[in-house]
Amino acid sequence: MKRLLHGIDVSNWQGSVDWAAQARSGVAFAFAKATEGGDYTDRFFRRNWNGMRESWIVCGAYHFARPKGDPAEQARHFLRTVRSAGGLRRGDLVALDLEHNDGLPPERVARYARRWCAQVEREAGVRPFVYTFQWFAKAGNCAGLDEYPLWIASPASPRGRPLVPGPWQGWTIHQHSSSPLDRNVFAGSREDLTRLGFDPR
């Protein structure tokens, strides 16, 4: 098995994060919540984005999906927020946090997610990760998303050995713990991970 690269993910719930201390503890990559729905911006995002970068941690930004809303509008809101915090640089990662259906049937949720991902890829030139849970994917909410890297929340599985739900055949990032911080692993090197991120060419 490949070496595991360690990461965390954060939002305003964590408050102010000491990114230098996280880097010293071995955190190599991180995702920070940027936006939710069409108008919410996480008030700690700019601080987190710049703190990760200053601490030489691979930077990731995620959008919390609200499938009842307009996916294109939500994608634009997300990208505007990232740009206002300093924008994307080579190797930066983006993700869609897909874990709520907003009361919609699975096919509507999956269609929203496909459109959000396609909009971000078209506008920013980077393929988003899709963060989800096994039960949520198994219900059909992730249909057609297998071309996007899977970030799977599977805290009951051994670290680096998550159960992989369809439509995916394999995982890319495994969120293996949620206490006291959400902790993740990537099977590969820093270079392997950043190759999945933004490339300005």
The Cα radius of gyration reads 15 Å
How would a crystallographer describe the biggest sheet?
Answer: 8 strands, mixed, barrel
Q: Kindly report the oligomeric state of this protein.
A: single chain
**How many domains would you count in the coordinates?**
1
| Strand/helix succession | EHEEHEHEHEHEEEH
CATH architecture: Alpha-Beta Barrel
Task: State the end-to-end CA separation.
Answer: 32 Å
User: What structural class is derived from the secondary structure elements?
Assistant: alpha/beta
Short description:
It is built from 6 helices and 9 strands, in the order E-H-E-E-H-E-H-E-H-E-H-E-E-E-H.
How does the SSE layout of this entry go?
Layout: E1 4-10, H1 19-24, E2 29-36, E3 40-41, H2 45-54, E4 58-64, H3 71-84, E5 93-97, H4 106-124, E6 129-133, H5 134-141, E7 150-153, E8 173-177, E9 182-187, H6 190-194
Parallel strand pairs: 1-2, 2-4, 4-5, 5-6, 6-7, 7-8
Antiparallel strand pairs: 1-9, 2-3, 8-9
Helix pairs in contact: 3-4
Question: Can you tell me about this structure?
Answer:
The chain has helices at residues 19-24, 45-54, 71-84, 106-124, 134-141, 190-194; strands at residues 4-10, 29-36, 40-41, 58-64, 93-97, 129-133, 150-153, 173-177, 182-187. An eight-stranded mixed barrel has the order 1-2-4-5-6-7-8-9, surrounded by four helices. The protein has one domain: TIM Barrel. By secondary structure, it is of the alpha/beta class.
Which key features would you list for this structure?
single chain; 201 residues; alpha/beta; TIM Barrel; eight-stranded mixed beta barrel; 31% helix; globular
